[in-house]
């Protein structure tokens, strides 16, 4: 059971794991041992609430395929168990991030004094640059 929040959790049979060989350097061991993990999670077939599914499918994340399958590759650690835990944690973070709502931005305007300061500094800078011209006789 993967707990997402107090009310939402995923059953183990909804998450599919596949052991693969890790990429990169690692000597002879990397060629023999399948220590990396591919985690697959189908959004449409899951038991997640509809709001989770909608927001996940709207994400522009390269880990989510067109069919709505989340694929996470974990190969940071040398053991399968640690990579499996890492993949689950990353899935959990992704699902939790979907439910955090962004605070609405209230548009603000610059104050009159800040506008005046900005214009004054530009005028001052322009005068300094004007003095850099050629000296005339």
Care to count the β-strands? 5
CATH topology: Double Stranded RNA Binding Domain
Radius of gyration: 27 Å
Strand content: 15-25%
Could you name the ranges where pLDDT drops below 50 across 5 or more consecutive residues? none
Q: Helical element count?
A: 4
Helix content: 25-40%
The run of helices and strands is EEEHEHEHH
Going by helix content, strand content and strand pairing, the class is: alpha+beta
Task: Identify the CATH class.
Answer: Alpha Beta
Question: Roughly how many Å apart are the termini?
Answer: 87 Å
Average pLDDT reading: 84
Largest sheet: 3 strands, antiparallel
In which order are the strands of the major sheet placed? 3-4-5
Q: Based on the structure given, which CATH architecture is correct?
A: 2-Layer Sandwich
Number of domains: 1
Give me the oligomer status: single chain
How would you portray this structure in words?
By secondary structure, the chain is of the alpha+beta class. The protein has a three-stranded antiparallel sheet with strand order 3-4-5, covered by helices on one side. A two-stranded antiparallel ribbon has the order 1-2. The protein is built from four helices and five strands, in the order βββαβαβαα. The chain is 39% helix and 17% strand. The chain has a single domain, classed as Double Stranded RNA Binding Domain. Strand 1 (2-3) and strand 2 (9-10) form a beta hairpin. The longest helix has 20 residues, at 80-99. The chain is elongated and about 85 Å long.
Short description, anyone?
The protein is an alpha+beta fold and 137 residues long.
